[in-house]
Amino acid sequence: MSPEIPAQTPPAESAGASGARAPSPPPAASETGATAGVQPSPRRPSLWERLRASDKQWPWKAAVRLLQCVAAAVGIACSGYVLANLANFDRLTVPRRNGENELFVAFFALSFIWGAADLLVRFLRRYSRPLHPLLVLIVDFCFCCVILYLAAIVVSSVLTVREFANDPNGLRFWRTGSAEGPYKQDSSGVWVYTGGSRRCTPAFADCAAQDAAVNAAWGQQPLRFALAIVIAVMVLVAGLCHFVLGVWAAVDFYARRKRKTRALMSGYQPVYVPAQMPVQMQPMQPVQGPYDKQIPGHQAPMPQYGYGEYGQPAQQVQQAQQRQHWQHGQAAMGSRYA
Asked: Which of the pair, 283 or 222, is modelled with greater confidence?
């Protein structure tokens, strides 16, 4: 019988080897969800950061635009009060017509709407980008042109209200080219017409209404003068704001165009095209006739050509020269092979 072989047991592995071969346990569900989840969104920049990124000078521009809106609001209030509560002086040049106050109301209203729209766009637009500087330049320049006309009107209005009833010869006002008056002030402070027979201004129902309007203008002169001063100041302040913002917009528009040009030129890659080399032209060899062949070592004279009486080549001279040239060639060949 064969000897019985004892059962062999596998060798024990070391702790380091078993640890290296052992598969790592799967990660926990909570850890997997934390790492594989959506990355947190970046922090949205604040309003101050967006405004600063879009325009570094935005606080000054917003302050000037806000000052323009305040001046327009005050001008609307003063002009509207004159139209609503003070006497109507249509067709009277003293103290100017209410139609001019209507112009002031329209101007201040448009100026306020434009300023408010500019501020709202700057603060509420996406990324807080302001209006295009070219648009701001055009609109503010138009306002400046209108202000030149309104400034002349408002200065004339202030001077007229101030000079109301300062004539020592009596109060007079003008209607459609003719003077009305004079009015004299009695002891009670009422202005009375002292010009004898008259025709009342068609703007009023009768002469009593005209006299009442003159006395109302006299009683409202201090308030009207103060409001005229305020309106004049607001027109000048609004005009100055429009001018400053218009010049600022022109500078911004120039800088914007310059930045775009630099960005375009920085991304431009020049393309180099190799230039073609010029082809070397081989010099053309003159066509040699049977008599033009030269023998090495012998310089044959060039044939000479003559001209006859009427410009025709002398055939005889030419043939003689060719014959002489051929004889020289034959003599040279004979001496060479002798």
From this structure: 222
